[in-house]
Amino acid sequence: MKVDYKNDIESVLLSEEKLKEIVTSLGKQISDDYRDSGRKLLLVSVLKGSVVFMGDLMRAIDIPCCIDFMSVSSYGSGTSTSGVVKIIKDLDTNVVEGADLLIVEDILDSGKTLSYLKDILLRRNPASFKICTLLDKPERRLVDLKADYSGAVIPDAFVVGYGLDYDEKYRNLPYVGILKPQVYEK
Length: 186
Known about the structure:
The protein has helices spanning 16-34, 51-60, 112-122, 181-184, and strands at residues 9-14, 41-47, 66-73, 86-89, 100-108, 128-136, 149-153, 159-160, 176-179. The protein is an alpha/beta fold.
């Protein structure tokens, strides 16, 4: 049986073209900001949602950089954070100390997960710590946390695509779309 996810999308919030513009702009800004630091730039993708964004972003950065991945869980299969953050996969590298650490996230929503990660990673003594998020949803913020680099501020809607999912579906959509409420209110 063929499933057409497109029928579950209420509207396209960010098209493929707009996403390319955002990523190109962020890549240029990050490259310019870190070009003369003299330190290693370490991009850390928060799996799974940011992997598509990270892949495109690292190609848009024109200075040397390293990458690593962390996997954390705070949602399960629901649509809102449980408030309990659990590290499922920690960094493979132990070279955070002295590096310029840039967390790459798909969406900054409540901020609880990133706040937790920030506390853990700052204890590893990076030279600097910044956050880059593709999407920023400030009206949902529950902690005092802001991204240093933000692709787009979006409304309080449930979004999927370009790596973002609902129950592990929709990640492969090439755009960011608003999911129809009837899909997740079942």
